[in-house]
Amino acid sequence: MPGGDFLSIAGWYFLPNIASGYLQQILYSIFIRAGDPKPQPGSPRYIRDRKRAHIFVILAYLLYTIYEADYQIRQTSDFYQALGVPHDVDEKALQSKFRRLTVQYHPDKATGPDKSQVEAVYVHLKLARDTLIDPAKRFAYDRFGFDSLQWRSCTTIRDFIFTGMQQTTGYYVASGSVLVLLGVLGYLQTGTFWRYLVMASLYVVEMHLMTRPTFPAVLTKVLNPLLSMTGWHPPLLPFQFLTLLRKISVTFFIALAQLGPLLLGAQAGQSGDGVSSQQLDRLDAVSKAADQEVSRMMGLEMSPYTTDPASMRELRSGLREWLVQNTIRNDPEVSRAVQGVLDRRRQGVEPAG
């Protein structure tokens, strides 16, 4: 996995939380007037606002990662763009275009400090011409990209298809194993069925594309005409289309794993006072543990009296007297009667003074 892709995926596990906190504070500073109290951490409104900010940040970061994946594809110019020819170019037009570019970039005509750069451009253009002019290599490049250039032992279309199927199957087996492992460890629980369904669908689509002699209809009849009409994006080759689908599926399901608890928590699992059933279960477990701890501590405190009957009787007598006195003192009727007696005594004493 390239370093940029690894950082982008790793960013899912800390950037949304950090950005949500900053976004919440910024929104409070904008929409809450100076001097008015802001919602305190832990309050219902603070939690609700934090959840909304978190959802917004996750969606925004999902769109950014899709844009980033597409930007990386556009930055890596393909052989057709380098030569300036369409995807359906024939051999005659390809050779003619290469000869015109040779006049401009041939190393023998380059001088000065830019000679090394011109030589590099010429080598790249020659590699592009040699790849696209060979039917087997062109077939493999369109479907597997630059990786196919490393398959030195492949000479026929059949060889390239067999090697490509091995590479693709290995990728999906490894990816599926990672998903299963993450599921066993308790991660990515949301949308498990759809995750495996999409992965299996992508695998079938790739197997179909690598064995078809033509480009898929979704590219030739829908996506590429739309991109050519808008002019903001060059047409996609099959391997670029598949690379984009892979990256979108990975980032989408990471986003879904983070959005799931937030969206489901807002609809289900919430009691009327805003406390989830999981929180109530944890509170019940804590209270039971506290009761057990209190019973244990009481047993330790009472242990010296269990072997001394006289001390136990004295303790029981003292507790009984304390309970009676405490009950009498706390009884409202007794309190009012005592207060009345005291008031009458004060009134009887005051005149004598």
UniProtKB/TrEMBL annotation:
Top-level taxonomic group: Eukaryota
Residues in J domain copies: 78-145
One GO cellular component, as annotated: endoplasmic reticulum
Name of the protein this chain belongs to: J domain-containing protein
SUPFAM superfamilies with a match to the protein in the record: Chaperone J-domain
GO molecular function: misfolded protein binding; protein-folding chaperone binding
GO biological process: ERAD pathway
Record field: transmembrane: 12-32, 169-188
One Pfam assignment: DnaJ
